[in-house]
Design brief:
elongated; alpha/beta; 8 helices; 232 residues
């Protein structure tokens, strides 16, 4: 299954999240992917409703969707990819840990996806639980005590150097400690103003496919600002 199957879905979600009708949504809407664009738009609307609804109501509606998807394995694969884009992708305004966790729980339990197919979803669910605003930061190799801007980058990504330079030049970070954590393989960038950390445990905490991202750790070690895309 492709990682982040659709960019179109994220763009559709950028219109903002709605507030009505999630509990009965799949009682009045069918699973029909004969027109894939229409089906994707319908799911995007559901995602908007779900993240704005009371959590228990949204989780119940998501369970109802999975019950219907269980009758059509092809649809199951398609919608699993859309859920990944809607509830996990950091550019999606409908990114939501509870809904993504419920989706992954069903993917594992329903028996339609094989272990190798649902394992990436499990990994992303774990990644999603790290470095949320207000929680204790999880940054291998970083010692608390100083407010710190943390940039996570792919060492094999040419544009990540641009992110280093852009953040270093931003006045709001002028007097803030700057730490870059490299994932993957490649030479360490030689951009001034940054301290570079390499850790074999970093890939257990950060998703290389989302790089470059940055976040801010307060002096007490809590996350002051959550994951933010460094290049837009």
């Amino acid at each position: 299954m492709k990682y982040f199957q659709t960019v179109v879905l994220c763009l559709a979600l950028l219109t903002g999240c709605q507030t009505q009708g999630v509990s009965s949504f799949w009682d009045t809407h069918s699973i029909d992917y004969s027109d894939i664009r229409a089906a994707e738009d319908q799911f995007a609307h559901f995602a908007e409703l779900a993240v704005s609804a009371p959590q228990e109501e949204a989780l119940t509606a998501l369970d109802r969707l999975f019950d219907k998807l269980g009758q059509d394995p092809v649809a199951y694969y398609i919608y699993a990819g859309w859920m990944d884009g809607a509830f996990y992708h950091p550019l999606s305004p409908c990114r939501n840990a509870a809904l993504y966790g419920k989706a992954v729980e069903r993917m594992v339990a329903d028996g339609i996806l094989g272990e190798e197919e649902y394992h990436p979803f499990l990994q992303r669910r774990e990644w999603m639980g790290y470095n949320l605003e207000g929680t204790q930061a999880v940054v291998p190799g970083l010692s608390p005590g100083t407010r710190t801007l943390v940039l996570v980058l792919d060492l094999g990504c040419p544009s990540c150097r641009e992110a280093l330079e852009k953040l270093a030049a931003d006045p709001q970070w002028r007097d803030v400690k700057k730490v870059a954590i490299g994932l993957g393989y490649g030479p360490e960038p030689a951009v001034p103003a940054w301290e570079y950390i390499s850790s074999e445990n970093a890939s257990a905490v950060f998703d290389i496919h989302l790089t470059p991202i940055y976040f801010v750790v307060a002096a007490d070690g809590t996350v002051e600002r959550g994951y933010t895309m460094a290049l837009s």
